[in-house]
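Marked as duplicate of an earlier ticket. Keeping the data here for the record.
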Amino acid sequence: MTILQEDSEPRLVEHHHSGLSTTFRGIEHPLSTSDAPFHQFRGIKYASIPARFRQSKLQTIYPPVTDATQHGPICPQPNGRLLVEELLFGVPEDRLPKQTLKQDEFECLNLNITCPAGLTQSSRLPVMIWIHGGGDRGSGSHWMYDAGPLVRKSVELGTPIILVTFNFRIGLLGFAGNTMIREDNKAAGDEGTGNYGLRDQQRCLEWVSQNILGFGGNPDNVTLFGASSGAADIICHLFSKANALNPMFARAIVQSPVFEPTLPDVSAAGWQLSRVMSTLQATDMTSLRALKVEKLLGLGAHIRHIDDGVFFREGWMNHFSHQHKGAARSSRSTSQKPHPPYYGNSLLPPSLHIAGHRHSSRSGSRLGTPRSRSRSRSDQGDTPEQPSTLQPLIIGDSSSESLLWSLPVSLWTSPAVVRRVKAICQSVTKSSNILRAYDISSATPEEEIVPHVLELVNDARCAWVTDCIAQNTKEERGGHGVWRYVFDQEGPHRNIPHHAADLMYLFDTCPLPDSISSPSSDQACPDMFFDGPFDVDDDDSGADPDFCFKDRDQDDLEWETIPVDEYSYTKVRDAMQSAWLAFASGNDPWRDDKVFVFGPEGETGERPTTLLNGRRRQNIWKSALEPLGYQLVSKLGAELSRGPCS
């Protein structure tokens, strides 16, 4: 881990941006050295918010001198609790870095740029943009996402990059939508409703595209990367109309996406929002906008992306059909031409249609960047929604993502789970397949039901969806251009794999145990752990705060507690950082006909794709989940993860 020790008076640096006619005053990063100097410019406003529940507008005017020495405000969110990632990390609270970030509903659209010193417009370094997760909490300015260690690593490897983190609207402020808001937005000249957080992210991409050259970056070589709900946001951008017509990133890295393939339309989203408005006694836009922002925080935690008929391109949801490879190829070969002119249900056309992209099964080959964004409509294909470039993709998940929902899942009883599964499936055969596959019955002992439900939730909400995206996008690219990984390395503090553990290794900013070779002796539950709550509006009454799996027979545990030592931590960290940086620089991170493993116990390297059959429950997916289809699988995972009160 890299210790960040920021001086009370950091050394100031200045960078004149001729395109924006301003001089940005930033700081020399605390990790900067004489051999590898790099700077950080904080809190740069990239867009403005004209009103609550309105689309943001790109910021283009700056004063002669712009102060970029302090982090800007973040989107308002509930105070007084650790973030999901901090809870999952398992770091004692007194060891977590102390950070206070101002909250402001209308001044929260700002970004932070970390870059090597001495760059000019001719430098044209690769750019990485991080989209933070956390659902309705979190920010791109959080200490865990400090870009210093990763930028320093890029300099050490001889592949320097510029890294951008940023803030956007989250929670109800970022995703509320209904017909009333849609009409209000339409009157203001905006198309669509909801998805304000996603559109803020588009404004950030637009700002970077127009202005990063002035910081020494290459606007045509931008890599999006994000985790959890941030990874889900990247999936939305991949499927967006804007990306099909005017792509503003060259490639993407999707880490442990928590994505719901079945999104509400405006009417369904309005029904969800109506309950919130009723609680707040808001009946129209005037009263809704007059409410103090504090009253909106923590409400509608499950309100996220909306399929408003504008943001996403036609047929995007068909991408989540999970067919067996042989069956999919057979169906395509008999029902349509190999490369039809329009791909309404595809992420991108096959790779042979793309110029400037070269994919090889050998590591080290170069990846191209998107075509020029100035192409005419006639050059873009037969329809306005045909994607104009083939964006390479890294995608993967962790083995125990569902620990994110440990608390609500712990409230289930065996009979209640069986009833809920049958009610969702509405089929004796399908529900029986699910229950049998995950060894769940009304007679399942109380001490065993929670681990089994966690396995089902893990597959339905994370692992199976990730596999759907990985397989379908790779097939659409002619078998190339998608790199699959599995992250099964133990978290340094918890000593088991868990959601967000990869962030500790990638960013290398989290405090590690004093003695990394041995687990803390005073852990309340050293063998396994329990964390929560993670859905702020879940009813956790009656939950046992001391719940853990400690009393389970060790032979029944999928993962035993394996202490993380310095060697395994360093090995996984270096492998992950090197692969991500190579990808951002335009190189293959590993062979795309292999799967890369991170862990357990420090294992790293390319492995045959058949490894997924053992690391993930692919055979169960084929027999139990695929017959349900993505809509029911999504519903099953969401309802079970939110507990019996959902």
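See parent ticket for discussion. The CA atoms of residues 139 and 167 lie 6 Å apart.
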